[in-house]
Structures are given as C-alpha cells and as structure tokens.
Amino acid sequence: HVLEHGKLHERSAIIKQLAGQIVQMSQQKFASNVVEKCLTFGGPEERQILVNEMLGSTDENEPLQ
C-alpha cells in the first residue's frame, strides 16, 4: 500500500531497504509482487538500483556471485 500511495521519500526508503534481496524476493510468490510494485512505483534512481541488481551489477560493476 505504501509503495503505491506513500510519499516519494517513503517509497525510496522501502526500496533501498530491500536492495540486496531483490533477486531472492523475485523468486518467491508473494515477495515478487513487492518487487513488481517497487519497479512500478519507484523513482528513476530506485528503479535503476533494482534493475542493476537483477542484471547482476554492483556499484563497482562487478558481477554478483
């Protein structure tokens, strides 16, 4: 609910808190819905963080293990 109707700073805080767990969450039935909402309602910066994680890059452009 907060991801859809919350303020930008609230959505951003939630998404940044979930960063690092996105790949695992996207493979779970209900958690994948949260990942989808993050991508839909997150700002450009937050979406980029999530996409980079899904594609396997980090801040240092090193592949995730």
UniProtKB/TrEMBL annotation:
A GO molecular-function descriptor: mRNA binding
Keyword Repeat (UniProt): yes
SUPFAM superfamilies xref list: ARM repeat (SSF48371)
Pfam families according to UniProt: PUF
Keywords: Repeat, Translation regulation
Domain of life the protein comes from: Eukaryota
GO CC entries: cytoplasm
A single BP term in Gene Ontology: regulation of translation
Domain PUM-HD: start-end pairs: 1-65
Pumilio repeats: 17-52
Coiled coil location: none
The protein's name in its UniProt record: PUM-HD domain-containing protein
Lineage of the species this protein comes from: Eukaryota, Viridiplantae, Streptophyta, Embryophyta, Tracheophyta
